[in-house]
Amino acid sequence: MEVSTALKLQKIAPLPNQTLTQDSKRWNSIIKHHTKLKDDKAILKTYTQMEAQGIYADSSTLPLILKACGKVQAIEKGKKIHNEIWNTNLIDDVRVQTALVDFYCKCGLIEDARHVFEKITERDLVCWNAMVCGFVGCGCFEDAVMLFREMEREKLRPNSVTVVALLSACGEIGVLRSGKEVHGYCLRNGLFYCSAHVGTALVGFYARFGVKVTRDVFEMMDFRNVVSWNAMISVYFDAGDSWRALELFEQMIMDGFKCDSVTILMVIQACAEVGSLDLGMQVHQLAIKYGFNDDLCIVNALLMMYGKGGSLASSLELFESAPTKDIALSNSMLCLYAEIGSLKEAMALFIRMRLEGIQEDERTIAILLSSFADLRNDLRNGKSLHGHVIKSAIEKNTSLGNALLGMYAERNSIQDAFKVFDDLSNLDVISWNTLILALARNGLRGQAWELFEQMQRCDVNPNSHTIISLIAACDDESTLNIGRSIHCYVIKHDIEINPSLNSALTEMYMNCNDEPTARNLFESFPDKDLISWNSFIASYVKNNQPHKALLLFRRMISLVDPNFVTIINVLSSCTHMVNLPEGKCIHAYTIRRKSSLGFDLSLANAFLTMYARCGSIQYSERIFKLLPRKNVVSWNAMIDGYGMHGRGYEAMLAFSEMLEDGMEPNGITFVSALSACSHSGLVQKGLQLFDSMVQDFCITPELAHYGCVVDLLGRAGCLFEAREFISLMPVPPDASVWRALLSACRVYSETKLAKTIFEKLIELEPTNAGNYVLLSNIYAAAGLWSEVSKLRMQIEEDGLKKPPGKSWIVVRSTVHCFSAGDKSHPQSNKIHAELKSLLSRVQKVGYVPDLRWVLHEEEDEDKIKRLFSHSEKLAIAFGLISVSGGTPISIAKNLRVCGDCHEFCKYVSKLVGREIVLRDGSRFHHFVNGYCSCKDYCSVILSFTSFSALMIRARSTCPPNLDFNCAPLPLVEAGELAPIDVLGLHLWNSVLPICTISLSKASANFCFSWKRKMRKDIHLRTKGEFLFACYLRIQGICRGRGPPGSSRFSSPYWTWADRGGRRAQAINLLGWRARIG
Fold first, then answer.
1. CA atoms of 111 and 97, how far apart (whole Å)
2. pLDDT tens-digit readout, 204-229
3. CA–CA distance, 486 with 479 (Å, rounded to integer)
4. What is the reported pTM?
5. How is 599-664 classified by DSSP, letter by letter?
């Protein structure tokens, strides 16, 4: 009757003499009628007809239309409605606004929903609930909890809808404490006792933390419905306690509750698990009584229950009486035949399926093959079925391939098994295990070992079944082989595995890149203690899976009290991901638990290191100053932190204070100090440190120290001196030493030396594609495109792959990763739009794309596109639209930041007035108001050595209003002033590479001079915009004296000044000063 009425209502057309208001009311009534019928498609169709006639919904009907859009995922329709009402009074109606929030949430557009929500001036409880539920539905569980806190501050009292959503969020993020707080709120405000939905939500929440507390909550519920009972029954069934599930079902029936199909299905499965055929038959009668006997899911469960209970006749009767038979029901019957070895009946049913038009799938074939496996001499049937698979063009996926492989393995047909194995495109662990087991059974132990080693090379993780099948197998010829053998021995001999042994086995599998087995050992072990948790967290950290380590830690703290070892391990995860917010949370957690954890210097040092390596050197300094005592690790962490942030002078000061404090430095101290000198261009100080390490502290240099010195000289442009230093090393240089020098060749375009270094590198690392790429970049920068082409072809021919550059940013505990040109992010359109806007704005204030950083031979337009799609630019754009104003944008990159992106960051930081913290592959860059903490050390091409010589080498043409000649000059002695040309400076409005300064023993007597000179300064006007002059104080370079005492050179820091609109910069040279202004 309702349907016919709806059809009549749809046919009503507006009469010409009726007013627009009357028409609108009629159409709105039709929509409301469709809403009662829950016909969302009809609602949208009706609204489309209204639009065609120029009639629009009112404030009471529009929410119904938006709700329908959300249910059928009509995103474009909903957005269109939003745009149409933007400038109308409807947009201010709280019901419409709430409906928009709900629509965007249901469509997964959580940011759009958040935007609408924040625009609402008068929010009611329904509006807040819509946003909270939306966060939960979109998986933003922590945001839901935060919004709930904000809701409390607004003095709004949550209702049952609010707490149900909030409990779901707390359960998903595993926060037991927050869930208990919500539970307490429900008890205080009577929500728990008056709403079955709240009680059911609490049951679902506590189910994640234990059966006992869940049952206690269930018993306290005054109001229960069938969903509540189902939730509790499911808790017992999922926990493996099927008898308790059945007892609870019996109590449910005795209390007068009518079960639904979900209840019946779970109870049938529980009967099958405990093998209670009598109880299963009674449940079957209930299913018939309630009219569920036609539900194929329930019929399927009953069929399996009777079969497992030994009543195959009942299963067959049930199968035959089913009104309709699908492939799932037929496969279940086939499975029962296979389990009892009834091959004849199974084949008969298979033929019947084909005659009745039921198309078999891969599971059908797998079941039949398993039945053939039990017949030792029946290989022919198996091969016939294999032929049928090929002829029928059934999709040969991994599971079907494994079934074929298992059949041949059981028949000991090794040759046929290898053929199937080689034909499989996607091998999984079962494939490998099956063939390894077949080889082991046939005494082919050597081939089994070889196959296991091949399995490792293919990155397929073996599991415990692999170890059981094979006595011992691993790609490590020493310890891992022994470990595998021990594990097999333990399993075969049923030796008790205590927590320590289980932790050791778990760690071994993780180190072998076999996470599934390791996880299985950990989760299945009933007596996990603190050591077990710490070991598994440490294994994740060690195997470069920091996010999983953090997730495991969050779960752990709800079950086991951590110790300082736990915190140290999990802090390493934060450091790896540069996840400062998570590190702060762990710090706060540790402070709250200070009484139980106590003071531990190792833990304090771990926090100090975490803050330094996550970009907050200020917090590291605070912790360092508050330490009641310090050890060498504390000082090393602080020196290393200063070095990473480009604060070389502070690092040297800390080193001096360390010595004054009576602390003896070790090898790691000097690695940190030398690295700090390298990052800050303190060449002379670095060389003095290296000499002091050997002469004063009697520390034998290791490869790490030699590598730092090579990097120090290379960054300063002393390439040939660095090469000579390597030749004098008493130990053979490793790849990292040569690579440091090769990187310097990239900066200074030394192609000949780079070729020599590259030949050394490929001898040590023939499969490292990064070395090829680095040399290719050097050739590209020098314009040697033919050499670039040869190298790239060689990389392809050798099958080498280099991990792509990527940048990531952590926003609300979620890591967002970007690669060059990345469009895979859910907010890709917004990100690229923001980036486009940024580029346009920074170009207006002077940013010019530096095409020299595009190492491809292509048109300038293509180069610009390539530059604008760099991963760090995408991460910055995302940070600007995702991180609240005033908060620094912290970004990490796995490779060194390019010069163009470095310049871009400077402009953006000044333009938007926010700090940008970028950690690249070698250091931190803090961009504040257009300045970088690295002081553009790599942007100004300066090189000095400790020789009494100076050469100025022009890299570009002389300014148009000046001539220059090159004339030999006398050697510049210490203490004299020498005129120096304008350097290649990155200015605010343009890049002006004029010339490069370099000290070189080979060409000591040459210096460029200009015809037009003033009495003291050399004035150059470039493009009519800037006026510069530069002096270099040479005093101290040769004899190692301290900085001159004049005020011009007294400060060791970079300074900037603005003189009449002109920029002036003071540049640090070897710790002394040269002024450009």
1. 15
2. 888 878 788 888 888 888 888 888 88
3. 11
4. 0.47
5. --HHHHHHHHHHHHHTT-HHHHHHHHHH-SS--HHHHHHHHHHHHHTT-HHHHHHHHHHHHHTTPP
